[in-house]
Design goal:
2 helices, Neuraminidase, single chain, 3% helix, 270 residues, 24 strands, 4-stranded antiparallel beta sheet
């Protein structure tokens, strides 16, 4: 599927850093100054702050502490955190092929050693629609859904039979009945829950790729980007100056989160 590019003025993001004087859709609600290597936000507006030494803190939407994860040296560096379900947080340690599951207060509930399952190279993981876990097994070239005890519940056909070159996804997102695998060099691969390939869109080199109400959203060095299956092209809007300095940008239903060096700016919808 070849995706044409349409350049137009649009308001799908309406970030305050773009048009503070022109609209009032978003406003800067607060800033958090701390040692922040990465962050995420769940659908309730809770904020998860990861420090450079792998301490994870959970804050409520008002900035009050809800929990601290201090197992900073157990498995090395946290590669990825999935906060799709605030009651079941996934922390992935790629170097140790280990997934840690925590409760809403960041207490450890379960640990999955993927090497014990024969999965030695899993670049990406993500929470599945049924609270199990999606894993892309690079050596086996399959997308797999596993249970908390490591049981393989389902898996796709060998990708080497489907594609000329195997996808190398950096993230897996399950939303709206579809599973999205994003590879910045090859684009996004979309499957249903049965592992059937539904679409491949060459959305390459998108940063902070996410799926919001079936819209694929991200940005490059100069533009915010949005694409929806069935629509004629990619919507673009220039990236504003203060967002250009961000190391990560996350859009949610409630607002916009912009991470700069040791400061997280939080913009809320009016």
């Amino acid at each position: 599927m070849r995706v044409p590019i349409l350049i137009m003025a649009l308001f799908f993001l309406c970030p305050p850093c773009l048009r503070a004087q022109q609209d009032t859709v978003y406003r800067l609600s607060r800033s958090i100054q701390a040692d922040i290597a990465d962050f995420s936000v769940d659908y309730l507006g809770n904020i998860y702050l990861l420090t450079h030494n792998n301490q994870l803190r959970k804050l409520d939407p008002n900035g009050d502490s809800l929990g601290v994860y201090n197992a900073v040296s157990r498995f090395g560096d946290i590669t990825y955190m999935d906060v799709t379900n605030p009651l079941k947080i996934l922390l992935y340690y790629r170097d140790f092929a280990t997934i840690v599951e925590t409760d809403r207060f960041l207490n450890i509930l379960n640990t999955i050693d993927l090497r014990g399952l024969g999965i030695f190279q899993a670049k990406a993981i993500g929470l599945a629609y049924d609270n199990n876990i999606w894993i892309f097994d690079e050596l086996d070239a399959r997308l797999k859904r596993i249970a908390d005890d490591g049981t393989i519940l389902d898996q796709t056909t060998d990708f080497r039979q489907l594609f000329d070159t195997i996808p190398d996804p950096s993230m897996i997102t399950d939303q709206g009945g579809l599973v999205y695998l994003y590879d910045s060099l090859k684009g996004v691969y979309i499957f249903d829950h049965y592992g059937t390939l539904k679409n491949h869109s060459p959305l390459k080199a998108w940063s902070d790729f996410t799926v919001l109400d079936k819209n694929m959203v991200g940005h490059n060095d100069i533009n915010f980007l949005k694409f929806q299956l069935g629509m004629p092209g990619i919507l673009q809007e220039p990236l504003p100056a203060n967002c250009q300095q961000a190391s990560k940008i996350k859009l949610t239903q409630a607002g916009l989160y912009v991470l700069k060096k040791n400061i997280l700016e939080i913009y809320s919808r009016r």
